Input
Amino acid sequence: MRRTASLVALWALVFFAGVRLAPSVEVAQWKDLFNGKDLTGWVNVNTDPDTWSVRDGMLICKGTPIGVMRSERQYENFLLHVEWMHLEPGGNSGVFIWSAAVPGENRLPDGVEVQMLELDWPKLHIRDGVTPPIAYVHGELFGVGGVQTLPDNPRGTRSKSIENRCLPRGQWNTYDVVAVDGVVKLSVNGKFVNG
Output
């Protein structure tokens, strides 16, 4: 899988909805996961040190070598707001939720991926004369590393978006992920399209 440069402005906010922590109870609140300055609060799981960086208040992924970072803290029930864009044709990225802290036998963690492919990705990945469906590009939800899901809008084991709302490279996209009690819903650029 090819990963190319992408920007993820993790003005990522997580809203805690019933986070289970003992013994004290945490009040639901928005929390910035990215401080806009450095990688404080993030753990390098399997990434080359210069794959991820911060520039002009944005989290930058150069795409090679492939790698995963995670927040220091794990979350169970939450709302996640992510603003992202790809800079090159065919860029490939994603956000993992409910994932293991470290990858198992695979290079990616076991969990659920919220796909972030650039719109040219299908044209650049024709196999045996078959172009992958555009549905694969914008916000598919799917299990990784053996994690099983029950998709609302199935394309095999994946849940595809009902409408293509992603903008092309060089333009900002917004994902709002609602992940509560084992159910995931995804809004792309202001409209819920998947779950």
In short: Residues 6-194 form a domain with the Jelly Rolls fold (CATH 2.60.120.560). The first helix runs from residue 121 to 124. Helices lie at 121-124.
